[in-house]
Amino acid sequence: MDKHYLTPLFEPQSIALFTGAQDAPERQTPQARALRAHLRAQTFKGEVAALDVSTSGTLADLAQTKADLAVIALPVDEILSALELAGRIKVKAALVLSAGVDAERAHEMQCVAQRHGFWLLGPNSQGFQRPDLLLNASSAGTLAAPGQLALVSQSGALTASILDWAHANQVGFSAVVALGPHTQVDLAAVLDYLANDRHTQGIVIYMEGIANARRFTSALRAAAHAKPVVVLKAGRHPAGNAAAQTHSGAIVGSDEVFDAVLRRAGAVRVRNFVELFSAAKCLASRYRPVGRRLGVITNGGGPGVLAADWVNELNLRLGVLSEASIQALAPLLAPAASLADLIDLSEDATPAHYRAALEAASRDKALDGVLVLHSPKFGGDPEAVARELAAVKPALSKPLVAAWMGDASVTSANQVLAEAQIPNFRTPEGAVNAFGNIASFYQNQQMLQQTPPPLTHLAAPDVEGARLLIESVLAERRTVLTEMESKSLLSAFHIPVTQTLLARSANEAMMIGTQLGYPVALKIDSPDISHKSDVGGVALNLTNAAAVRDGYQQMMDAVRRQKPEARINGVTVQAMARADRGRELYIGVVTDDPFGPVIAFGAGGTMIELLNDHAMELPPLNQFLARRLIERSRVHETLGEWRGRPPIDRTVLEQMLLRVSEMVCELPQLREMDINPVIVDEHGAVAVDARIVVGAAAQTSSGRAGRYGHLSILPYPARHTQLWPLRGGGEYRVRPVKPDDAQMLQDFVSRLSSESRYFRFVSNIAVLPPSMLSRFTLIDYDREMALCAEVDVEEQGQEGETLKRHRIIGVSRYITNPDQTSCEFSLVVDDTYAGQGLGTRLMLSIMDVARDKGLQQIEGLVLANNSGMLKLMRGMGFKVKSFHEDPDFKLVTHSL
175, 150 in Cβ contact below 8 A? Predict the structure, then answer.
């Protein structure tokens, strides 16, 4: 139960081969001929047995043939028979190498695999390679060299091209998987496997589309938390949607949403094939987290300026040495050297000058990374300079990238840099791109760590009232809320709005204007008009009753003339918001297919679509994510002190974004929303206008969706937090684990007795390695759950003061099995708190969560000599029986 369910597929010990008549290769498929050639080219470390679909005999005869994996390369009309035969010999996985199988026939094949209980890669797959096993079960090309990168591709043609490129550039792989359309083992499943694969240190993905957004996002987050993931995605669609009923829906494109998904997943996106492996090469070096300030060392002004320009283009920052570093370094360089911005060593630069500059840059806290450029110079020694970099690199704690420009003259230098594992590029732009990927990776890793709850710490919203409002609109078979309804919905979530009243006649409008106080604004109120100003439906700064009367009549005439079919409820009257010192912004929501709702932010007002300023983030948000969302917008530059205006109240703006996040999480029928403009100044923020579109809730996952089935990233399940008394006095909390529990969990494991550690991990492990620690703390609450028991303890600080700290004293968890109906649990309790009922409470709580998810059975493996755990299991009604695969364990099960 400890092995991944795809282990028999990607690490088979034995293979059953179906390739058709061996004595008639002309009747074999192209995939079969390629497969047999590849298997002959090297000796697979396991066993291979050839079978034929015409094989006859009794079950006893077939029982003599055993295999983990069936590899099938047959004509389409023979594949089903081969799958049936593979099922009879009880394979655990099958690979179908074929092309052109339609969705209906592929579904039939998947049904056979499901009935026999094995996993199916294919049809339409070009197979996979495992170089460390000398296994080339593919038709994509010759076996790749061994390496630490895994390649997963949804295109067979591109897989073959990448393998060809890799052979020429001496790039090796731990695994190569070519998926193809209509496969049962999809991209998410392969990512799941590679996240735990000990041979893989980085993952490269080429993808064209996904079927299950929740499952893909979940698998990508898990993989990117364990190791660097680089994604190249085809099909970048232009932004804009003619059918959108809000500004947000018109300007936010699906490709930008995909960028937002990758940011929250902690992965890095590249835009072209050239960047794909240079990014993977840099990220696999596992530099520690860094910022965006790149120092540039060069021996020529031109290349340095090119690098600096590209730094600005990528929204990085050119790192400049501190004054102290400049004063210490200047005497060690040539007289012509310049340190004002670039570290320009001049044409007189020697290898010693390069070393001194690199050492100074490595010590300077004003730089997050270093780029070293070298241009060929008369009398220069590129190889000697490269050797100085190689000598300094082991002591560096910052990312180091290089660009040795030239060709024949730098061949030996390039070899030195390659041996030292210093990423080296032909151009300054390529090297800056590489550093940008490193910076993006660690910024995205910070985003990955965020797991906000659906509701914030702010005052509780009126969720039930908001739901009733939406249900009443849908009951009237409407999808667009009026401005009055939209503002009522915002008010239910404590978002400040301008006071708005509906007038159905010119006289009513005059009376309301007098009550509110002038100046006022008039806006047409119609469910059929998306953009009011386009049809003359907005009048601003009306300063007296006569202007309101005339404005009302002119507006009604203009709208009826331009939109005669529109249903008009009347005209809304609202006091003008004071915008003389404020900034006009917008906050929007769009629903993407397949990733669900996305929150957008940017510059607002009537020119919103022309300005096209929008940053995006997936819900749920916390303050950190809201702040980053604001910072990614172009309008962010104007939010500080700007043109004589004081800086805005950023806290209020962040809280408004958090409120919108609450709306998105708790109202799955919310499909589109525009709050435009939002006027923000130093005193606060107010929503002047709002338009909301509702409809059927998005579904990001097939099957059991649950309460937040419309979200790609599940919020932190704070509802499972409980407070319980300790038998000896005091109390403890049971709550879901969070990513920032890593250090507390490490401390918890270190306090366990050696026996308890052995019972839990079946080893004497005393310190959890980073990969295991991350896997235990950053979890996907959709497919697994970990609950910790936590107490508050008092400790002495360094200066004798009393500090209150949290301490984990027990953990229970489950992981959903591949059958999606059962789960496997684990449990461990601090020895100091044994006998106080913690184990029982943690097991009951984790069973409640599993039951809430719709799972039907919970099971686990317990060491046969762990008498305490077996006693607990029997006391809770678990069935205890022998585990046939290993007599040292007992299998315990309980129906939910």
Answer: yes
Tokens of 630: 């604001």
pLDDT at 109 over 50: yes
Using CB atoms within 10 Å of the CB of residue 863, give its burial: 0 to 12 exposed, 13 to 18 middle, 19+ buried: middle
- SS3 label, residue 468: helix
Q: How many CA atoms lie within 13 A of 589 on its CB side?
A: 31
Residue 454 preceded by cis peptide, ω within 30 = no
Distance CA 811, CA 787 (A): 6
Two tokens at 266? Answer: 């902690």
> What is residue 815's three-state secondary structure?
strand
Q: Give the β-pairing of 14-18 and 69-72.
A: parallel
**Mean pLDDT throughout 556-585?**
86
The SS3 assignment for 867 reads helix
Element (H, E) at 597: strand 596-603
Q: In one letter, which amino acid is 159? A: T
pLDDT 10s digits, 589-609: 999 888 899 999 998 876 676
Give the largest CA-CA distance in the chain: 99
- Find out whether 278 and 423 touch, Cβ atoms under 8 Å: yes
For the stretch 335-345, pLDDT in tens is 999 998 999 99
Please report the pLDDT score of residue 250 as a whole number: 47
End-to-end CA distance of the chain: 20
Q: Which domains does the chain have, with CATH numbers?
A: 290-422 (3.40.50.261), 718-895 (3.40.630.30)
Alpha helix locations (H) across 42-178? Answer: 59-63, 76-88, 103-116, 156-168
Residue with tokens 């697979």: 44
Give this prediction's pTM: 0.85
Contact by Cβ (8 Å): 611, 594: no
| CA distances, 107 to each of 27, 31, 110, 157 (Å) | 26, 21, 5, 23
The three-class DSSP label of residue 127 is: strand
pLDDT per residue as tens digits for the range 627-664: 999 999 988 888 888 777 888 899 999 999 999 999 99
Q: With the CA atoms of 639, 641, 644 and 649 taken in that order, what torsion angle do they form, in degrees rounded to the nearest 10?
A: 60
